[in-house]
Amino acid sequence: MKQVPSGRISGLIYRFADFLADWRGFVATFMALMLGVGIGAALQFNEGFMFAFNIFLSVAAIVISGVILVAGARSEAALHVKLDYLIEHSPATNKIVGLEHLDAREIEEERKRVEREAAEAVEDAMEGAGLTQR
Questions:
Q1: How far apart are CA 134 and CA 123, in angstroms?
Q2: Which of 29, 58, 72, 104 has its CA 20 to 30 A from that of 64?
Q3: In this predicted structure, what is the pLDDT of residue 27?
Q4: Distance in angstroms (rounded) separating the CA atoms of residues 39 and 12
Q5: How far is CA 129 from the centre of its chain?
Q6: C-alpha–C-alpha distance, residues 119 and 68, integer Å
Q7: How far, CA to CA in Å, does 65 sit from each of 13, 71, 74, 80?
Q8: Residue 28's Cα: distance from chain center in Å?
């Protein structure tokens, strides 16, 4: 049995995701749905057709969700690399690089800490400019 390289499969998934994200993908999906409804109406929505159409819609939904998840993971990974690069080459601290590997509670704690530091920096800047409220 011949193996298909994973790069080729990934390429197909990404092209399919790009197609679905485009207006042509929306139109194709909508037309397939309308075609199914039209055929169903012609067959008076008999049990056999409805069973087959429901199976088709279920499989299509599962495949499309998987494609969206894979494409989203690629996009998210690319954003992490870009942000890590920007952080690395900026005067900001590098201690948050890799934050995405923490659990949700730890990320929320870090978000609150950063917000507190930002609020304190704004207050200090306002005091320095003589803009504090008394």
A1: 13
A2: 104
A3: 95
A4: 30
A5: 42
A6: 37
A7: 11, 10, 14, 22
A8: 21
Question: Quick one: how far is CA 67 from the chain centroid?
Answer: 10
CB 107 within 8 A of CB 114: no
Residues 6+ apart with CB under 8 A from 20: 26, 29, 64, 67, 68
Decide if 70 contacts 17 (C-beta within 8 A).
yes
Contacts of 44 (CB under 8 A, 6+ apart): none
Convert 74-120 into a string of H (helix), E (strand) and C (coil): HHHHHHHHHHHHHHHCCCCCCCCCCHHHCCHHHHHHHHHHHHHHHHH
**pTM for the full model?**
0.57
Which of 66, 14, 57, 9 has its CA nearest to residue 35?
A: 57
Binned average pLDDT, 10 residues per bin, the chain of 134 residues: 65 87 92 94 93 94 90 84 82 75 87 88 82 61
